[in-house]
Amino acid sequence: PNVKGPNYAWLDPSRLYCHPQGLQDCVADLLQPFQGDPIDMVAGIDAMGFILGAAAAATLRKGFLAIRKAGHLCVQTLEQPYSDYSGREKLMEVRTDAISPGLRILLVDQWVETGGTMRAAIQLVEQLGGVVAGVAAICIEDSEGGRWIQERYKCAHCVPPRLQPRFNRHQ
């Protein structure tokens, strides 16, 4: 449970990463829908998407690209504004030399709540000519942004359909 107040995410699934079999099962569940799909690289979204994204990249034997909050990279970058789950306006960046036209990218984050962060990552990949091969997260909530993503891209998440309403209402 959230013990720090309303400015923090309502649920923290990071304890899952401490359990070896749990982490392996989560990554396997996230990658299952993409078996046989052409994926050239996995991109994880700052910061918790780095964990699942790197694990997915290692499992697929693909490279890993970090999509960062702006100001953390010392190379040439492309920036994209977005609003996070708390409604704060932020900038996301990606190095411009990592994505070539036609490169198929699997985007991974821990959680898609409002969809703003994932949508910014999608825009960065597509502006550089990359192709979003799919979107994977522990949970993709049934929000306006979550639906926008699921209507346009192949998606994977770990929440069973019978439990999805509880996650959507933050129970």
TrEMBL record:
Keyword Glycosyltransferase: yes
Cellular component GO terms, alphabetical: cytoplasm
Biological processes, Gene Ontology terms: purine ribonucleoside salvage
Start and end residues of each Phosphoribosyltransferase domain: 37-151
Catalytic activity: AMP + diphosphate = 5-phospho-alpha-D-ribose 1-diphosphate + adenine
Pathway(s): Purine metabolism; AMP biosynthesis via salvage pathway; AMP from adenine: step 1/1
Name of the protein described by the UniProt record: adenine phosphoribosyltransferase
